[in-house]
Each structure stands twice: as structure tokens, then as C-alpha cells.
Write a structure and sequence with these properties.
- The strands form two sheets. The protein has a six-stranded mixed beta sheet, sandwiched between helices. A two-stranded antiparallel sheet has the order 6-7.
- It folds into two domains: 68 residues, no CATH class; 136 residues, no CATH class.
- The model has no long low-confidence stretch (mean pLDDT 92).
- It has ten helices and eight strands.
- By secondary structure, the chain is of the alpha/beta class.
- A hairpin with a 2-residue loop joins β6 and β7.
- α1 packs antiparallel against α5 and α9 packs across α10.
- It is elongated and about 75 Å long.
């Protein structure tokens, strides 16, 4: 039985599938050429393997994961933002704001009473904005308040330090700025505001692993990559007398003296 009241099972599975497909070429297999496209540091990998007591398989898989993971945050940002297009009273505009939540029957916001509209800028983590981008976002929100006196603006953080819905304090031109209708909001509190369910974000997180597994298992268009780096390195090791370390060294030092 489907456990989320604020989004249908069909829409949620579609969104998960779209998020996975948004990974794009990161789902492509890694061969040795791709693995070493930016020249890995063999000495670092050998230190890491020995210090952390990894196997050769583990250290190679970890490095492949690290390379893939460098651009994955954008894909997860897609998941956090675009899910709201399936939730009642929310839109995800093509430009301007990440999410707009509008409700004719009014939206209750702490310290602000009720408003008709919430304009949202969404960030993955609490520390992803530097002072300049923070000030720019804050001024954008100030301008929105000037043109719409029946709204609030939220900076929604997927991973905040705490569960919160508080005024956002930021430094603009060297001076601290604070307005009760410009707020810093954790993702759980935003789900609560939008759905009216205090634990809506928790419920979504609880069903997510199962849905991802189901989507991956049943979607023909989603291919789980088979990486061949380990096998290719093992062939080089065999050619070099069985030394996997030497095969790894060849990635960075094949033109050096002695190699």
C-alpha cells in the first residue's frame, strides 16, 4: 500500500527514474582509458590501499566512485527540486525561482502570519553559498518582497544543520540584514509547509530506497555500468610478472625512467 499522501506512486517512480536517467554518461562503464583520463596518482592509491587496508578491487572501485561522484550533486539537486512539480499547489518554473508554492486558502508561516505565495531558492547544503552569492540571493528576495506584499521567500537547504524555519541573517555590503519574511528553512520544514504533514520528508526518505531499487530492477533503459578497469589492470599486472602495483604505476609513470 502506497504510504505517501502528497505524491502518487506513479509520479514518484517517474521522478526517481528521471533522476537516475539524468545521471547521463556517469552511468557509462569505466574502462582503463576513461579511468586514467585525468591521470590518477598511483602513489596515493597505493598509500590509501595499505593504510586503510583495502583490497585492490576496493581501492579501484573507490576511485571510480570518486570520479563519478564529483558531478552527482547536480543530479541530486534535480531530485530535490523537481519532485515539487508533482505536489499540489507547487510549480517548478523554467527560470527565476526553483519552486513556487501558491495557495488561495493561505499558507501559515512562523512569525509572518498567513501569505498566499512562497518563493524558493534551494541549496543542497548549508555551506554551499559563499558570501557574495548569499548576498545576491538575499537581494533577489528583497526585490520580490517589494513587488509582492503577500509572500515570503525561503532559502531551502536539503542538508541543514538543524530542522528550522527561521529568519535568514546575511551580510550585504558589510552590514547584517534580517527580515522575518526572508527565511532559512530546512527541507523537512519545507515539506511540512507544502504538504501539511509534519513528517512528510521522513516518509519520503523511508520509501525512497525501495523505489530506487524497483526502478533500477524494472527499467530496461537504465543500464547498471560494468566497469572493466580492474580486469584491464590485472592483464597488465600479468604481463609485468604479476605485480598489480607496477600495473598501477604504469598509469602515471609509463614514460618515466625505469618503468
Amino acid at each position: 500500500m502506497w504510504k505517501l499522501n502528497f505524491i502518487s506512486e506513479k509520479d514518484f517512480k517517474l521522478h526517481v527514474r528521471n533522476t537516475i536517467q539524468n545521471y547521463g554518461e556517469k552511468l557509462s562503464p569505466y574502462d582503463l582509458k576513461r579511468f586514467n583520463s585525468n591521470t590518477v596518482d598511483p602513489i596515493k592509491l597505493i598509500f590509501d590501499k595499505t593504510v586503510y587496508q583495502y583490497s585492490w578491487e576496493e581501492i579501484i572501485k573507490n576511485e571510480i566512485f570518486r570520479q563519478r561522484d564529483k558531478s552527482n550533486n547536480n543530479d541530486i539537486g534535480y531530485f530535490h527540486q523537481r519532485i515539487f512539480q508533482y505536489i499540489e499547489n507547487c510549480t517548478v518554473p523554467p527560470a527565476g525561482w526553483d519552486v513556487v508554492f501558491t495557495k488561495d486558502s493561505r499558507i501559515e508561516v512562523p512569525e509572518c502570519g498567513s501569505v498566499k505565495t512562497v518563493y524558493v531558492e534551494m541549496k543542497n547544503k548549508h555551506n554551499t553559498m559563499n558570501s557574495a552569492s548569499g548576498a545576491k540571493t538575499y537581494m533577489k528576495m528583497q526585490n520580490q518582497l517589494l513587488t509582492d506584499d503577500d509572500c515570503v521567500c525561503f532559502l531551502v537547504e536539503a542538508i541543514a544543520r538543524n530542522s528550522q524555519n527561521i529568519p535568514w541573517v546575511v551580510s550585504v555590503d558589510g552590514e547584517k540584514q534580517k527580515h522575518r519574511r526572508i527565511r532559512r528553512v530546512s527541507m523537512d520544514e519545507f515539506y511540512k509547509t507544502v504538504t501539511g504533514e509534519a513528517d512528510a520528508f521522513y516518509k519520503m526518505c523511508m520509501v525512497l530506497p525501495t523505489v530506487i531499487q524497483e526502478v533500477v530492477a524494472t527499467a530496461d533503459s537504465i543500464a547498471i555500468p560494468h566497469d572493466t578497469v580492474l580486469e584491464e589492470l590485472q592483464r597488465i599486472a600479468d604481463e609485468k610478472g604479476g605485480s598489480f602495483a607496477l600495473a598501477l604505476y604504469m598509469l602515471g609513470f609509463k614514460n618515466y625512467i625505469g618503468f
